[in-house]
TrEMBL record:
Coiled coil: none annotated. Belongs to the heat shock protein 70 family. Signal peptide: none annotated. One of its GO terms (molecular function) is ATP binding. It comes from the Bacteria. Keywords: ATP-binding, Chaperone, Nucleotide-binding, Repeat, Stress response, WD repeat. InterPro entries: ATPase_NBD (IPR043129), Heat_shock_70_CS (IPR018181), Hsp_70_fam (IPR013126), WD40/YVTN_repeat-like_dom_sf (IPR015943), WD40_PAC1 (IPR020472), WD40_repeat_CS (IPR019775), WD40_repeat_dom_sf (IPR036322), WD40_rpt (IPR001680). Residues 335-364 are annotated as: Disordered. WD repeats lie at residues 380-421, 422-463, 464-505, 506-547, 548-589, 590-631, 632-673, 674-711. CDD domains: WD40. It comes from Polymorphospora rubra. Pfam families: HSP70, WD40. This is Uncharacterized protein.
Length: 720
């Protein structure tokens, strides 16, 4: 990565790629070492002369390649020499400064080898940046995520040959590695191997061909071996973007079809080891989850969807992912502080910094807010972190917001002024809802509690305790007498709103309950589980009436149709499903999304279902037929929420691209794009009269839009 005098970074290209394979090749003669793609091509004919990863041989003095004794320093220097030559060619001269990245656990002895190789390559004196520090510098300095002093970033680096996990803490003037650990036997190559193993299982009768592929002796067999593993890597990368990939098997001359589900089943044991390692590191380092500003996935293999899913499920923090995570460390090194030494490892880690509650970190963190970020018409002292929830009271006069700062807030919609600040939760507020009469507000939090608040006074009416792993979801019954909550402990609970006492504990789920919803008549409660099931419960008895099985990954949302006859569910498996509530049978499987379905909502007349997807689209479905009515495209990042206007003619969508959009339901066309937010939009809600739209954003604001006039007028509820 090369930065010009204007500070702009651009990748150097090697064989038309921004990535230079680190392998080196030594021929039988005494000529120079080959690097990159040249080395890989030469290895096809003479594999004994090839070393794929000299960095992993850092502790060896020499490497034997094709009967040639090559020092490790020479091997690393060959790669750096090529980098230096390309940098000089592009820049027109030697770079003013050079920063070299390295694993956080490298000793001064290893750094000495790297420094000698750099000097040999013509770089001269270099600075060193630990790879997780470079990643943290990219997180805060390049993509503008919030990493305040005293908070930590967990960097999960899944590269080609290893998995490294580190905790980086920001101090007042530096980034420091608090703890680091890793696995030398898990990386992208091991995941490639699962695809090769799967292909072998599908062509097991071709034993002779597989013998030649696994133990190549002739140049033709060696070329076939290289092509197989190259294509396996390509298939793995394709499966990070699509649900299937084809792999050609040389020598057998056949193509096998690999689905993402098949690949993830095979890869899961490897990835679960890395997630267990991550959880252990946090525990051993004494860093509580609440101190994390985020989880950042770097390294080429970290883009696999299962990586983020497993980490999110275990740590309850949504990782930050990028399209090209393999370039993060290189560019981050241009922004990170250089040093001449690094910690030798995570044992023992420094004492964890004191924790100050600012809410959970279950979503990627927001960019720093500056006065230039927004043009304020009305600035209200408000949330100090992301606003993730907005909901109107039934009469439309009050707006409730909640977010990562652990508070909920009430606002007078007519004036935009604060009515009350609801404090008491110690973690991120995950859900908020008004009672049907509008007199009570319920909140659920990752601090294991739900709370009831008097809307008129803003005072707590009851603290509902019992969940043991966070309260994720909350819903009032239509008569307002009962509250339902769902928690990470695998239970849903019913509460008497008048007394605040538990009415029933609903057990049967095997994982966290992500969503709860009452039927319109209040007799049935639907719950959604991380284990891929939904349940229907008899509210009067607290007993299960139906288990709805069909999703192959966690169920993120549930919604009843207005007539109560149909239930919609949204799944991580990329499908939404419609269920007949009376029989528990599947009415339709809605399969057009190609990634996680985040939200489902019925139109007021119940004829249309809207879904929001991580594939960047929202979709409208004909409930009667289960067919797609419209695909709403335009967002450039995933769609986080959908809401129908009260008359059902307009759909609002919230996008993590920083926009909200209004759509004409009849035509599926964009009616308006609301672009005033400066970071991702989490939630949208229409007022009961349909004239005002509320949006909540990672930029620390909630906004009220007049959707009844030409240009929206905006009140801003901003971070203080």
């Amino acid at each position: 990565m090369l930065a010009g005098r204007d500070g702009r970074a651009k990748p150097l290209l090697f064989d038309a790629s921004p990535l230079l394979p680190s392998g080196v090749f030594a021929g039988l003669d005494t000529g120079p070492l080959f690097t990159g793609a040249d080395a890989e091509r030469a290895a096809s004919a003479q594999p004994a002369g090839f070393e794929a990863n000299p960095k992993r041989r850092i502790d060896d003095r020499v490497i034997w390649l094709a009967d040639r004794e090559i020092t490790v320093t020479d091997a690393i220097a060959a790669v750096l020499t090529r980098v230096n030559a390309e940098a000089r060619r592009v820049a027109g001269g030697p770079p003013d400064t050079v920063a070299l990245t390295h694993p956080a656990g490298w000793s001064r002895t290893r750094l000495g080898v790297l420094a000698t190789a750099a000097e040999q390559a013509g770089f001269g004196e270099c600075g060193f940046v630990a790879e997780p520090v470079a990643a943290a510098a990219y997180f805060a300095g390049v993509i503008g995520k919030d990493l305040p002093a005293g908070r930590c970033l967990l960097v999960y680096d899944l590269g080609a040959g290893t998995c490294d996990v580190s905790i980086v803490r920001r101090t007042q003037d530096a980034l420091e590695v608090v703890a680091t650990t890793g696995l030398d036997d898990i990386g992208g190559l091991d995941l490639d191997a699962t695809i090769v193993d799967h292909a072998r299982s599908l062509t097991a009768t071709a034993t002779n061909a597989w013998g030649r592929l696994e133990w190549p002796r002739t140049p033709a067999d060696q070329r076939a071996h290289r092509l197989l593993w190259r294509d396996a890597r390509t298939a793995k990368e394709q499966l990070s973007r699509h649900t299937s990939a084809d792999l050609h098997i040389p020598l057998i001359d056949t193509v096998v079809h690999v689905t993402r589900d098949e690949f993830e089943t095979a890869a899961r044991p490897h990835l679960e080891r890395t997630v267990d390692l991550t959880a252990t590191l946090l525990r051993d380092a004494g860093v509580p989850r609440q101190l994390l500003a985020g989880i950042f996935l770097v390294g080429g293999s970290s883009r696999l969807p299962l990586v983020a899913s497993l980490l999110h499920r275990t740590l309850r923090i949504a990782p930050t992912t990028l399209d090209h995570p393999e370039l993060v460390v290189a560019e981050g090194a241009l922004h990170g502080p250089t040093t001449t030494h690094t910690p030798t490892g995570p044992t023992p880690p420094p004492p964890a910094p004191a924790y100050t509650s600012t809410g959970d970190a279950d979503q990627p963190t927001a960019a720093d807010i500056t006065p230039d970020d927004v043009t304020v018409e009305r600035t209200l002292t408000g949330h100090s972190d992301q606003v993730t929830l907005v909901v109107f009271s039934p009469d439309g006069r009050t707006l409730a917001t909640a977010g990562r700062d652990g508070t909920a807030r009430l606002w007078d919609v007519a004036t935009g002024r604060p009515a009350a600040i609801l404090t008491g939760h110690t973690h991120f507020v995950a859900a908020v809802v008004f009672s049907p009469d509008g007199r009570t507000l319920a909140t659920a939090s990752y601090d294991d509690t739900a709370r009831l608040w008097d809307v008129t006074t803003g005072r707590p009416a009851a603290i509902l305790t019992g969940h043991t792993d966070g309260a994720y979801a909350v819903a009032f019954s239509p008569d307002g007498r009962t509250l339902a909550t769902g928690g990470g402990d695998g239970t849903a609970r019913l509460w008497d709103v008048t007394t605040g006492r538990p009415a029933a504990i609903l057990t049967g789920h095997t994982d966290g309950v992500e969503a709860v919803a009452f039927s319109p008549d209040g007799r049935i409660l639907a719950t959604a589980d991380d284990d891929g099931t939904a349940f229907l419960w008899d509210v009067a008895t607290g007993q299960t009436t139906t288990m709805l099985a069909g999703h192959t990954d966690f169920v993120a949302a549930v919604a009843f149709s207005p007539d109560g006859r149909t239930l919609a569910t949204a799944g991580r498996d990329g499908t939404a499903r419609l269920w007949d509530v009376a029989t528990g049978r599947t009415a339709a499987i809605l399969t057009d999304h190609n990634d996680l379905v985040i939200a489902v909502v019925f139109s007021p007349d119940g004829r249309t279902l809207a879904t929001a997807g991580r594939d960047g689209t929202a979709r409208l479905w004909d409930v009667a037929t289960g067919r797609t009515a419209a695909i709403l495209t335009g967002h450039t990042n995933y769609v986080a929420a959908v809401a129908f206007s009260p008359d059902g003619r307009t759909l609002a969508t919230a996008g993590r691209d920083g926009t909200a959009r209004l759509w004409d339901v009849a035509t599926g066309q964009t009616a308006a794009t609301l672009t005033d937010h400066t970071d991702g939009v989490h939630a949208v809600a229409f007022s009961p009269d349909g004239r005002t739209l509320a949006t909540a954003s990672s930029d620390g604001t909630a906004r009220l839009w007049n959707v009844d006039a030409g240009r929206p007028r905006i009140w801003r509820i901003t971070a203080s």
